[in-house]
Amino acid sequence: MAAPVTVLLSPNPSDETPVSAETPASDTVRPGKENVRGGALDFLRFLASLLIVVYHYGAESPMRIERFGQVFSRGFLATDFFLMLSGYVLGRAYGGSVLTGRLSPARFWARRAARVWPGHLVVLGFLAVLVLLLNTVGTDAHKPSRFAWDQLPAQAFLVHAWGFTSDGWNLPSWSLSALIVCYALFPFFWKTVSKVRHAWILPLGAAAILGVFEVIARHVFHHALPDLQFQYGVMRALPLFILGVCLARAVDMRWPSEKAAKILLWSGVALLVVTQPLDRYALPDTWLFDGPSLLAIAMIVLGAGRLPVKRPKAWIEEGAKLSFALFITHIFVGVIYWSAVHKLIETVPIGIGWQWLMWLAGFPIAYGFAWLFHTYVDQPLQDRIQPLLRK
């Protein structure tokens, strides 16, 4: 089942921040422009969050947008990027602290869980109140079957990607549930990869782990990894997160060279562009599409991560910071907006051109709400919670 982190995208879709005053650097990371925000990875994170929204809102368009290009059916690749990027960024930001013992596994998990849980609970509360209000006035939310009350507790506790059935409510939050497990295992992962002395072994080992998980998914769950049901999200997230951790350790070891990193980055972009017109399901095996696409994403993360940010852009940094808020709020915005739009279309004759304009308007509305949520809800919550956890 195509997703989604987060970063994230999703997203991780979580809002991990590369090395800064608040996120101690890895033991081999040296201060420099490579740790500055507003570079290629932030830009890609912003684009991936938008692709996830396009993927989820695509079903509400006047015509299935996959007809205009296969890329619009590839939201699951943006999720893969976020899961991989989460492992990469955490390795770069917290690896050194984990190795030296300055940050215990329990404290690390608590800080990361506190980063995603409060915002998730607030949005889930918004959705519950909205559904209650709609039911009170005698109408249903758009696609009411997605809001089964017995599935709400699993989402609230972020365990719905651990084998518990919960395919409704805030759909993308399955990746947050999976990342909670990844956070708990991150110190073990980092200590393990830090024992590897040859950087080139790391991506090869991660690829082997990904292959093992793919075989398990096909033989046990009878689906390719990207097509797993949301309730098995941990199975999908773990190998991608591990791959990101391995790439972070390789960059810590100053591998590859900057010249090779540029080649990797642009070769990865070219490979990703070339593969997207392919029809995934028309190929003899979906892995013939998934494999090259994941390879391209890994090449992009490794190449962009290894290169220093020479001209950081403030707007790129701000866009990346908003990706988590956009990831967790766009379903809530969609329930309100698409319920109103479809009700309007049912009652008033509206031409196809205006329908397309109303569909396009959903994106700035979603982004505007994400900015409000980030500015007035999520960031104030983090400003109160994180200092307490750091103490």
Describe the protein in words.
The structure is a single chain. This protein is an all-alpha fold and 391 residues long. It is 64% helix and 0% strand. It has one domain (33-390). It has helices at residues 40-57, 75-100, 105-136, 152-156, 174-193, 201-220, 233-252, 258-275, 287-306, 314-321, 323-347, 352-390. The longest helix has 39 residues, at 352-390.
Task: Present the secondary structure layout.
Blueprint: H1 40-57, H2 75-100, H3 105-136, H4 152-156, H5 174-193, H6 201-220, H7 233-252, H8 258-275, H9 287-306, H10 314-321, H11 323-347, H12 352-390
Helix pairs in contact: 1-2, 1-10, 1-11, 2-5, 2-7, 2-9, 3-5, 3-11, 3-12, 5-7, 6-7, 7-9, 8-9, 11-12
Describe the structure using short key phrases:
391 residues, mainly alpha, globular
* Approximate shape: globular
Mean pLDDT: 86
The overall strand count is: 0
Order of helices and strands: HHHHHHHHHHHH
Strand content: under 5%
Summarize the structure.
This protein is an all-alpha fold and 391 residues long.
